[in-house]
Amino acid sequence: MKKILLSFGMLAVAAFSSAQQDATREVLERLALAARAEQAGLLEELAALGDPYIKDFVGAWRTGEVFSYEVSEDETIALRRVSERYIRVATGESFEVADEEDERLKKIRPSRKLRRALKTITDTIDLSSPDAKTRIEAALKLGLSQNTDYLEVLRKKLEIEEDAKVRLKLEEAINISLLANAPDDAALSAAIERLGELKSLPARDGIAGIQDRAAEAGDEALVETCASAIEKIDAARRTIERWGNLVRGLSTGSVLLIVAFGLAITFGLMGIINMAHGEFIAIGGYTCFVVQNLFADAFGVQSAAYQWFFWTSLPVAFLVAGAVGFGLEKGMFRFLYKRPLESLLATWGLSMIMQQLFRLKFGAANVQVNTPDALIGSLEVGGVALSYTRIFVIAFAGVVVLMTWILLSKTNLGLYIRSVMQNRNMASSLGIPVSRVNSLTFAFGCGLAALAGAALSQIGNVGPTMGQAYIVDSFMVVVVGGVGNLLGAGLSALGIGTVDQFLQPYWGPVMGKIIVYFAIILFLQWKPGGLFPTKSRSMDD
How far apart are CA 509 and CA 516, in angstroms? Predict the structure, then answer.
């Protein structure tokens, strides 16, 4: 039933679009052939149609591609030349002209006044778009131009606009235009006051300039009005920045959380300081790149199937990194259990080797991973634009946390992992296959790192060293949360990521991290075991 309704809806939209273009073509032909006295009414009719085809036709008219053709003494039509052929303007159908030297074919040249009127129509055509976002963008663009030709158009659109958000943006655009075109001081003060109430960020610099000129002229009332408006706008901007920093901090913390979960499990289980964990992040990013290319070759970039490359790459990245981690655990890491200094040196060397392999295969430069259409754009909430990619990263981290909790709490493997983490010897004596648990757990931790790399491909660069930017922070997350404690890792990841993003605008990226690390050092002096210190029977002994 839904498919049938959708089909009828699409047919209705197509029929409406076709009818609108037919009406537009008819008006354009009449306008091209009309006398000057008739043009004003036709221009109003044309502006009300709002068909994007108008832009295309006006562009052709300006370049001399529109002609009149006398079919008979009683009938004259308008033709447009397109690629060495002629089409009738009113119908869009091809029209045969026997000879271009035919005296019945005459080029139509619009007057300067008509060209100016047509330019206003084409510049404001998006105000009639069926898409509210397009109308909002068009209104703001016209308002910022502060062109008096657009002011009356904006006012007329405000009278008939029904969407509340678009009405506010039209009102904002009108008042921004009045900053340069106000008829008197009272109108200027009213426009400034209203822009302050609307918390118009684009108007802030213009109001500040008016304030400076008013101060020089000694107009204290206008200076006070400008100051009040600027204060409201600045307060709104600070609020937007805080929420923006919060979202960026949560998305950064979400990536750290996914990475740190793998470290928390492997370090808590095996006691290995894995300095190559960042390279498993890179495996996730490069897997997205490879899957993207495979989909492009198989389906084409423009196909609907291509949009599934990213969603397909997520489980593929987890499996690829898990397989690599499983092999490395069997061939290398099993000999480094509970030997932190040796594991530190060995995994650092492994990190260098893996980075060089990435360079040999993909090159030293970063590679481009495209964003699927579903993640392009942003969601505006209270004036704060929330990127769909960052929203996805936060939600994705939540899914990873949930799946990890289910694995550790509701499955036999999770029970074995928790048993081995608490007391390896006791777990072995009870018949738990410790060696197999180690391999699967390390593979799982590497898979989580690859998932973080796949998510990072949408908000950062994919390159040989992409994981190095997160590895130190991830170890800090594990230590602050408590070694092997997933709840602690989650809380510390979100906390460190959010605090870092809040500090960077004020202290810079380097100094912001230094302050975070210094705070971590002080915290560990107070609680050496982290938020949730590890407790086991072996420690009680």
Answer: 11
**Element at 414 (helix H, strand E):** helix 412-422
Token pair 């939209």: residue = 13
Q: Do residue 402 and residue 298 come from a single domain?
A: yes
DSSP summary character for residue 367: B
Whether residue 145 sits in one domain with residue 54: no
Query: Of 85, 110, 135, which closes a domain?
Result: 110
Q: Which residues contact 343 (CB under 8 A, 6 or more apart)?
A: 271, 272, 273, 274, 333, 336
Do 351 and 301 share a structural domain? yes
Residue 105: its H or E element: strand 105-107
> Across residues 337-353, what is the average pLDDT?
85
Length of the chain: 541
For the chain, what is the mean pLDDT? 82
| 307 in the same domain as 396 | yes
Answer with the residue of higher pLDDT: 326 or 378.
326
252 vs 192, residue with greater confidence: 192
Domain-embedded: residue 541:
no
Among the three residues 463, 495, 524, which one is the final residue of a domain in this structure? 463
Contact 154, 142 (CB under 8 A): yes
Residue 267 inside a domain? The answer is yes
Domain range holding 326?
248-463
Q: Are 439 and 416 in contact (CB under 8 A)?
A: no
Quickly list H helices, 271-371: 277-299, 309-331, 340-362
Q: Residue 311: pLDDT band by 50, 70, 90 thresholds?
A: very high
Out of 237-241, 303-307, 351-355, 467-471, which region has the weakest mean confidence (pLDDT)? 467-471
CA-CA-CA-CA torsion sign (113, 115, 116, 121):
positive
DSSP secondary structure string, 369-407?
-PPPGGGSSEEEETTEEEEHHHHHHHHHHHHHHHHHHHH
Task: Look at residues 272, 277, 408, 285 and name the one whose alpha carbon lies nearest to residue 344.
Answer: 272
Query: How many other CB atoms are there within 10 angstroms of residue 136's CB atom?
Result: 22
pLDDT (average), residues 215-242: 89
